[in-house]
Design a protein that fits this description.
With about 250 residues, this protein is α+β, with helices and mostly antiparallel strands. About 45% of the residues lie in helices and about 15% in strands. Helix 1 packs across helix 3, helix 2 runs antiparallel to helix 3 and helix 5 runs parallel beside helix 6.
Length: about 250
């Protein structure tokens, strides 16, 4: 008599929820931050994808007389990759800021600063607006650093990095000067964290040597960020913001 096998239901694949994936993403990023001091796996994955696409494009050979379609396809792919790079760079900046928030130093008292209040606006990667206890707004230009302009590569990522660090947060400012535009120039702190220095450490800002020539801490932070290819230093030929402004 033939053996009758018990009825079994087909196996259903179960996919992780978006919330679970986000939790894994944050945990993995914080873990890399704790071990290496930065979050690089996002951009490393992007570079790998970039290389794969470039290799596939290079391997395409169309018949003679089709140069224009080939160029059009390559241009479209380049635009798509540039957009992906900016998006993932901003994501990397936000992820690093999450790790920074978890590792804050003890809060300093308001008396340690010349100005203190809540950040109500982020103009770009190195300029913000602070609202103090008297409801007076102060436009703050971060001292000793310069971030890419909005239309410059990594400009949006730099703004996202500053936003992730201080938007809506209570900060303190040690004032250095007032610039020609009437902005207060100073070093920004959030819970004791030097925000100016952090942006350079993570590769989202340049050390502005012209205005902080003797700041060895910023100089060292830039050397380390460049060597580790963090943030904007992933670009093989990064252009300093002051050079970009001169050319544009």
């Amino acid at each position: 008599m033939p053996r009758i096998l018990p009825f079994t239901r087909p196996r259903r694949w179960r996919f992780l929820s978006s919330r679970t994936l986000l939790a894994l993403f944050i945990v993995g990023s914080v873990a890399q931050y704790l071990v290496q001091g930065n979050v690089t796996w996002v951009t490393a994955s992007l570079r790998w994808a970039d290389q794969m696409v470039s290799q596939q494009v290079a391997s395409v050979r169309l018949p003679t007389g089709t140069d224009s379609p080939v160029q059009s396809v390559e241009a479209t792919l380049e635009l798509a990759l540039a957009s992906a790079r900016n998006g993932l760079s901003a994501l990397q900046a936000s992820t690093t800021a999450i790790a920074d928030t978890a590792l804050d130093k003890p809060v300093h008292s308001a008396s340690d600063y010349d100005l203190s209040g809540t950040v109500v606006r982020i103009a770009d990667g190195d300029t913000l607006t602070l609202l103090d206890a008297t409801n007076t707004q102060h436009k703050i230009r971060l001292h000793g650093i310069d971030t890419p302009e909005r239309r410059q590569p990594y400009g949006n990522a730099a703004r996202e990095a500053l936003e992730a660090l201080v938007a809506g947060q209570h900060i303190g400012v040690v004032v250095q000067d007032t610039d020609r535009y009437g902005r207060t120039v100073g070093t920004v702190y959030r819970n004791g964290l030097n925000v100016n220095l952090t942006l350079v450490e993570k590769g989202w800002a340049w050390w502005y040597e012209r205005y902080a020539r003797n700041d060895r801490e910023l100089a060292q932070a830039q050397r380390e960020a460049r060597a580790a290819r963090r943030g904007l230093w992933q670009d093989s030929h990064p252009i300093a913001p002051w050079e970009w402004r001169r050319l544009h």
